[in-house]
Every structure is written in structure tokens, then in C-alpha cells.
Design a protein that fits this description.
15 strands, TIM Barrel, Urease, subunit C, domain 1, 25% strand, 14 helices
């Protein structure tokens, strides 16, 4: 497979006019040469934190607090999930997954409610699609064993020591929400020695030092945090300390669009476009243990092709900045997964 255009190459996303050579699903080479193509070839996104089950309840619960919306076991989302049939939940999740795939998302890291049955439901929803799910079960050890790891709701919601140990022994991924509402659950979450933490809206200096000392990855979801009224994560400060990735969080609150999340994060934190694009691609891939997120030889060929001459992108002078702050689903010409 040959894909031509302006290719954003490597970890610095250097714009190179030429072509990507793909063989057996792997990037074999990037060849620099003149082309007649206006296309922009970008690594496909990795959405590092999702709750896809919320697809049954988009825009439900306006005006409710964070706890009223999503706190287990009786937040609105949990009540709606219990009330929905498996078929309804699977069909709704599948629609969100199709939307994500069409928008250039190669993979996502899902905190999947519902125990073993919840893990089975999202596996059904992914059937026949190319988007890859790294599914972290919740609530039970059995769910973790059926999934790719465990996604804890937060240290204040229970004692996760046993589940953390079981996940480690299984050689699987352990993530946990922390610092979303306030700072009180951050140290207990860090004490579990997770593989990554999600949100970190309210870190204190001691938390930042612990994160930096461990080089503990953090997934931020700024659109979600503002919708629930908990504040905005200190993205610049976190990025100066450790690896930061982007997630879209609950589908009930926001569309699972990495374009929207990138634009919002870039304008909120005023970080270089290259750094934000790393947060949307390779940083999430590293957390999830995936070999994608960059265009370079040896990487999986998970690629997004944008129309660089669309009415939206035509005339952009800084193409990486344009991809991060301006591009959207309407600019997508092709997704290679």
C-alpha cells in the first residue's frame, strides 16, 4: 500500500512531502519525493480514556453534579445502564465506535462497567470493526480476567488492594481515576502503584512530585472536567512532569472525538501543537502498550488521511497546528486501520 501527501513523520511530526510505504500492516518506509497530493497523512488517534457504555444516555442529566451523574453504584449513568437491555447497550456502543473509527481513532482505553457481562458487551460491539479496544473491566476480579486489565473508579470508592495485586499478577493494565473532584483521593490512588491515572484535576505539589518521580502517565479529559464543573486539569504542569495523554471520557457528556479534545486542550493549555498531537496519538499508545501512534518504520500502519485542500484546511500555514486546532471529521478522506 502506498499513501501519498504531506506526511507527519516521527515524534516531532515533521511535515515531509512524499509517501508512506505499508507492507503487511506495518510502515516499511517513508520516502521523500514530490507528489501531486494535497493530502495530509497523520498517525491515527488513541483515545486514552473512554466510557463507551454511556452511549445509551447521551446528554442525559443536565445540571447534575459529578456524583449524581457518574458515581457508582447509583449515579444516573449506572441506573440507566442497569435499566437498558444488553442489546440496547451493544447497539448504542457500536454506533459510538463507528463514529470514532470514522474520525481516525485507531484504539481506545475503556473503563467498562458491568463486570464480566459489561466486558462481553463491548467485545460484541467491537465485532467486525477495525478500531481496537483496550478494555479494562471494573467491579470484579473476574471482569479483569476477561479483559485487558482493571479500571478502578477511585480510591474513595473502595479497597482496591486485592484487585491491584491480582491485576499485577495477571500481567495486565491497572488504571484509576484520581484527583477529579478534589485532591483527597490522589495519594491513596498513587499508593496502589497504578500503571496510569485519569483526570488529576486537583494535584498538589506532593502529588506532582510523586508522579514525576515515578514517571507515572496521566490521562486528562478537559472537556469532561468542565462539563461536570470540577475544574480544568493543569495540563502544562503535568506535561512538564510526565507523559500526558488525552481521553474523551463519558459519552453521555461529550462526543468521543479526538479532534474536539485536541483543539480544546491546545487552546486551554496553550501548548505547542506537536505536544498536543503526541497526547492524542503515541502517548496513549504507550500507556495501552500498542505499537502505533507515530509514522515511522516498524510501527503499525494506523493512519489518518486528511484533505489538506478542504475548505477548512486549505490555506493553513502550519500544518501540525492546523491538524490540532482546526481539523475535524469533515476533513477525513481515509482511515487506514
Amino acid at each position: 500500500m502506498i499513501i501519498e501527501g504531506t506526511v507527519l513523520v516521527g515524534g516531532e511530526f515533521e511535515p515531509v512531502e512524499g509517501r508512506v510505504v505499508v507492507r503487511n500492516g506495518t510502515v516499511e518506509a517513508i520516502e521523500e519525493e514530490r507528489t501531486d497530493s494535497d493530502d495530509v497523512v497523520v498517525p491515527a488517534f488513541v483515545n486514552a480514556h473512554t466510557h463507551i457504555g454511556d452511549s445509551i444516555a447521551k446528554e442525559a442529566g443536565a445540571g447534575l453534579s459529578l456524583d449524581e451523574l457518574v458515581a457508582p453504584p447509583d449515579g444516573l449513568k449506572h441506573r440507566l445502564l442497569r435499566a437498558a437491555s444488553v442489546g440496547e447497550t451493544v447497539a448504542a456502543m457500536r454506533r459510538s465506535l463507528r463514529f470514532m473509527e470514522a474520525g481516525g481513532t485507531a484504539a481506545f482505553v475503556e473503563f467498562r462497567e458491568g463486570g464480566v457481562e459489561g466486558v462481553d458487551a463491548i467485545q460484541q460491539a467491537m465485532g467486525g470493526l477495525d478500531v481496537e479496544g483496550v478494555v479494562l473491566g471494573r467491579e470484579t476480579e473476574a471482569a479483569m480476567r476477561e479483559a485487558d486489565g482493571f479500571g478502578a473508579s477511585g480510591a474513595r470508592d473502595g479497597d482496591f488492594d486485592h484487585l491491584r495485586n491480582a491485576t499485577r499478577e495477571a500481567g495486565k493494565l491497572f488504571g484509576i481515576h484520581a484527583g477529579e473532584r478534589d485532591s483527597t483521593d490522589v495519594n491513596p490512588a498513587l499508593d496502589l502503584d497504578p500503571d496510569f491515572v485519569v483526570h488529576m484535576v486537583h494535584p498538589e505539589d506532593v502529588h506532582l512530585e510523586r508522579i514525576e518521580d515515578r514517571n507515572l502517565p496521566v490521562v486528562v479529559c478537559p472537556r469532561s472536567n468542565l462539563v461536570t464543573g470540577v475544574g480544568a486539569p493543569p495540563i502544562r504542569e503535568l506535561a512538564s512532569r510526565t507523559t500526558v495523554a488525552l481521553g474523551t471520557d463519558n459519552v453521555m457528556l461529550n462526543s468521543p472525538s479526538m479532534f474536539r479534545e485536541m483543539e480544546f486542550a491546545a487552546k486551554l493549555a496553550d501548548l505547542p501543537a506537536e505536544e498536543v498531537l503526541r497526547m492524542a496519538t503515541v502517548n496513549g499508545a504507550e500507556i495501552a502498550g500498542l505499537n502505533c501512534g507515530l509514522i515511522e518504520p516498524g510501527r503499525d500502519a494506523k493512519l489518518l488521511v486528511l484533505d489538506g485542500d478542504s475548505d477548512n484546511l486549505g490555506g493553513v500555514r502550519d500544518i501540525v497546528r492546523g491538524v490540532v486546532r482546526r481539523a475535524g471529521h469533515a476533513d477525513v478522506k481515509r482511515v487506514v486501520l
